[in-house]
Design a protein that fits this description.
By secondary structure, this protein is α/β, with parallel strands linked by helices. The chain has 14 helices and 11 strands. The protein has one domain: Amidase signature (AS) domain (Amidase signature (AS) enzymes), CATH 3.90.1300. The chain has an 11-stranded mixed β-sheet with strand order 1-3-2-4-6-5-10-11-9-7-8, with helices on both faces. The model has no long low-confidence stretch (mean pLDDT about 95).
Length: about 450
């Protein structure tokens, strides 16, 4: 698979042209919503003239289409923003461009990042890189697939409850969700502000580490960002790793469990200690998530009203009709479902019964994680309970779709760093991922551990 190093020091225009050609050749996967061809070639020529330099000079990449970026509309895969052209760029994109990277396109996603399969895109689903009859995962499915298909060596995604890690697992690539606040969210369409994180997909850990190192750091435009703590470091020789018992139940696919156990054997062979640990409250994490996150979704989507920007319905006579019809036409079914759930749990009479209780339970989850990290450096478990499921298999059952996030949601609620790494394939050839979770600000330790095992 392609690496960043394959593009360094080479003709940037050729790099970009070849990446765009690969993207056009793989259109049947529907991983990209648009190409930023004209702007990408202009930047490539500037690199070749020596006007743009940096650690990623001439390296093509793709951004999920909820990142504001120049060269193409930022749609968030929704009809609501179908023609919206960003007046600015996301901080993460700006930082990569300052190092010479070249964005060639915008990747497909579940509309407004609401979903776990990229089937909720207003422009049609993305297909799995290994089996076109199966889902790409979501919501960052397009970014995962362009990386797995070697269209670009890395791509950006956002992760709110597993939206990087789950599609990374389904497509056999590296997917990094950093500690909450590591990378600025400025210029990224908001989903749930207390769990949204910005991360990356790559074909190898070293490239993911480099991209995260460039993007990390304080941003005055995002008050939730942390001071830059991310410093790539060598792997520690002997770590204590905890296998989360609750992620290895009978509900998990046997091949997924077996792949996880094989990865654990690699950990032990590398000199690390692995014990089984328990995290009892994790069984309530999904319930917490689908109270807290829809509440934040309903608040964040209130800005789309057909007035300032975005889709504006025609043939209306009152303000209320304008609001209602614009939102009805601009939002997908899953967007509406989350708005309704969120509005309900925040409403008078239900706020204390649902939202407040979920936040209290979230604190208990954080405390349980902290207690485990008093004795363990890293936690491990499968990234997803199954390999990629079939297109259309879960679309009629929202609860079944939500259960695909059951492994990834806990780390998001606690703001912890997590990485999904390939751990083999099923008998039918579908990728299986294993998730490593660390304590807050231990991102470099996680990446170093994953890299050391990758190099064995």
């Amino acid at each position: 698979m392609t690496k960043i190093s394959d593009f360094i020091g080479k003709n940037a225009r050729l790099n970009v042209q070849e990446a765009i050609s690969r993207a056009k050749d793989k259109e049947e996967y529907h991983a990209l919503l648009s190409l930023t061809e004209e702007r990408a070639l202009e930047r490539a020529d500037a690199v070749d003239r020596g006007e743009i330099t940096g650690r990623l000079a001439g390296v093509p990449f793709v951004v999920k289409d909820n990142f504001l970026a120049y060269g193409a509309p930022t749609t968030a895969a929704s009809k609501m923003l179908e023609t919206f052209n960003a007046p600015l760029q996301a901080t993460a994109v700006e930082k990569l461009e300052l190092e010479g990277a070249i964005c060639i396109g915008k990747a497909n996603l579940d509309a407004f990042a609401h979903g776990g399969s990229t089937e909720n895109s207003a422009f049609g689903p993305t297909k799995n890189a290994y089996d076109k009859s199966r889902v790409a995962g979501g919501s960052s499915g397009g970014s995962a697939v362009v990386t797995a298909l070697d269209i670009v060596p890395f791509a950006l995604g956002s992760d709110t409850g597993g939206s990087i890690r789950q599609p990374a697992s389904f497509n056999g690539v590296i997917g990094v969700k950093p500690t909450y606040g590591t990378v600025s969210r400025y210029g990224v369409v908001a989903m749930a502000s207390s769990t949204d994180t910005i991360g990356a997909f790559a074909t190898n850990v070293a490239d993911a580490e480099l991209v995260m190192d460039i993007m990390a750091g304080k941003d005055d435009k995002d008050m939730t960002t942390l001071p830059d703590f991310f410093t790539p470091s060598p792997a520690k020789p002997s770590l204590k790793v905890g296998l989360i018992k609750e992620t290895m139940t009978d509900d998990v696919d046997p091949e997924v469990k077996q792949a996880t156990l094989q990865y654990i054997e690699h950990l032990k062979a590398a000199g690390h200690t692995v014990d089984e640990v328990t995290l009892p409250i994790v069984k309530y994490a999904l319930a917490m998530y689908y109270i807290i996150v829809p509440a934040e979704v309903s608040s964040n989507l209130a800005r789309y009203d057909g007035i300032r920007y975005g889709h504006r319905a025609g043939d209306v006579r009152t303000l209320a009709e304008l609001y209602g019809k614009s939102r009805d036409e601009g939002f997908m079914t899953e967007n509406k479902r989350r708005i309704m759930i969120g509005s309900y749990v925040l409403s008078s009479g239900f706020f204390d019964a649902y939202y407040l209780q979920a936040q209290k339970a979230r604190t208990l989850l954080v405390n349980e994680f902290n207690k485990l990290f008093e004795n363990y450096d890293v936690l491990i478990g499968p990234t997803t309970p199954t390999p990629a499921f079939g297109l259309g298999e879960n679309t009629a059952d929202p609860i079944k779709m939500y259960l695909a996030d059951i492994m990834t949601v806990p780390a998001s609620l606690a703001g912890l760093p997590a990485i999904s790494v390939p751990a083999g394939n099923s008998e039918s050839g579908l990728p299986i991922g294993v998730q490593l979770v660390g304590q807050r600000r231990s991102d470099a330790t996680l990446l170093a551990l994953a890299k050391s095992l990758e190099e064995l």
